[in-house]
Amino acid sequence: MTQNGDDATLVRRPGIPDLRMAPEGAEPAPPQDPQADQPPQELPLDRNQAILEAAKQVGALLKRKGHLFALAGSVAAYAHGGEKNMQHDVDFAIRPEDAEAVAATLREAGLTVYTPPEDWLIKATCFGQPVDIIFELAHRPVGADMLERAEELSVDSVRMPVLAPTDLLWSLTAAFSEHHCDFGAALPIARALREKVDWEQVRRECGDEPMPAAFFFLLERLNVI
Question: Which InterPro entries match (predicted)?
Fold first, then answer.
């Protein structure tokens, strides 16, 4: 059973031994090697691996229950061959009408699920990592056609549907605005997946919005496209 994200611990820490008073007149114990008799410690998982573990766990849950979904965001880019450089969280795309059923599945598995002020996603926590369950990408409801175009790929040994490269780059580029235009995060993804993306389709879908147009200009000057 999946552990609640608030309770799960990825790193085992040694406990503190009981303290006892020494008997009167006892000779002080000789100094010992501070490393002696210490229980072995597991190496801590780095943030990228922790995010991957959360993606695998949630993806397996959704797949087992037969939900229509696709992995999105930076973990999807990694699954398509991009860098192992997860940004902040795990993103999954679902249809709006499936949100309640997906939330119920995650709660039944013991995950913390809550509804944020934004009305286009629900949030969960798995292994201490934030998971966004998104049903609106770039101000458009996620449709069955997009999810059916998803490619089943191995995500660190767990197979699951992943947004197609063209849909993934559209979702990242079309979301740029005056208040959100982090080209630095999207640039490595565009460079890694450039040969798999229908850039003309991405341009058409983005229309004449200025921030996506600026990103395309940057990609052209850098010879990415």
Answer: NT_sf, NTP_transf_5
Quick one: 63 and 110 in the same domain? yes
How many CA atoms lie less than 13 Å away from 12 in the CB half-sphere?
Answer: 5
Token digits of residue 163: 């947004």
Radius of gyration of the chain (CA): 23
Phi, psi of 94 (to 5 degrees): -140, 170
**Does residue 168 share a domain with residue 124?**
no
Q: Distance between CA atoms of 52 and 189, rounded to whole angstroms?
A: 17
pLDDT along the chain (225 residues), means of 10: 39 35 44 46 70 95 97 95 84 97 96 93 94 94 96 95 97 89 90 96 93 95 94
Q: Per DSSP, which regions of 17-155 are E strands?
A: 69-72, 90-94, 112-114, 121-126, 129-134, 136-137, 140-141, 151-155
pLDDT in tens, 195-223: 999 999 999 999 999 999 999 999 999 99
Global confidence as pTM? 0.77
Same structural domain, 54 and 147: yes
pLDDT tens for 117-137 read: 999 999 999 999 999 999 999
